[in-house]
Here is the input.
Amino acid sequence: MRKAIPVLILLLALLLSACGGRAAEPYSLTIWYVDTPLSPVVERLAEDYNRTRGRDTLPVTLRAWESSEQLLSTLQHSAAPALILCPHTLAFTLSEAGLLKNAGVAAPAYPDWLCERAACIGQGYFPVGFSLPLLCVPEGTPDRVSELLTYCADRGRETGSPCLFIDRFAPLFYQVLLDNGTEFHAHAARDAFSKDYVNLYNQLAEAVFDGGLTLDESAGNACRIESSTALSGEDLAGCTLRPLSAGPLLAEGFGFAVTVRETRMQRALPDFLRWLLKPGRLGQAALDTGLIPAVADKLSPRDALEAELVRLMDHPLHLPDPDREYYVNQSAFEGEFRAAMELLR
Here is the structure.
């Protein structure tokens, strides 16, 4: 999806300028999506709404796409759906291009920092929650990244067994550089001029070389740095959960972008959105998938992860702009970095 964003405005401007085109499934409210952490929950919500909706409302139908590129390609030749379940990057791009519609319903009580982040919040885009990397370590283990890497390198030398697994390295680099006021480009030739990048790179390399950091996921690793969504449903007994920083936290938002154009869907959409935005519904959907809820309403954490996610609702989050090099380069960076680390094993 990241590489598709620079051409998104052109593609959808061509599409949505022809509002009089044929409607996409005019007798239902359509929601398009590519797989996100929220996808299974949205499928359940659609079933609940269709089972309880009034006679005068339209049913909700979902359409899944294998990739964002496929979704965008279809939008070139088809009318827009009522909603697109998408990351904040895609929603902000649509908003900047003037391609989101005001839903015309009362917005949830989103926090001020989020409303100030983009004008479309609560009008054309309704965030549900935010994913972010979390530290998951045993009690008494260092919970600062630099100290944890040193600890795991020492353990690797002593025992010959790894004790740390990191699911994605690009977000870790982004967070460490963010803490020091430096932009992470996910491009080694550019980032190598940053002392913070070089220091973290060397620490990670040392931990891999000494056997304390593994590149292979294993249930035997005592320490992990993983996405909050990956930790959802895991047995975290005896673990301490912490964010990667005490400052603003790198996060990715997920929510519903309003792209409706067809007249009948426009009339029916407010009923569905009012049902969807009922206090507690989206907050619980976020917790069910390991996301920090975007709205604090009637939440009852059921385990340690959910309790930490609710606690982090008061913590400032950093949602990068969609045109950042990080989004374009992160997949390539991840592969290149892992290949370099494999050489040290």
Observations:
- The radius of gyration is 21 Å.
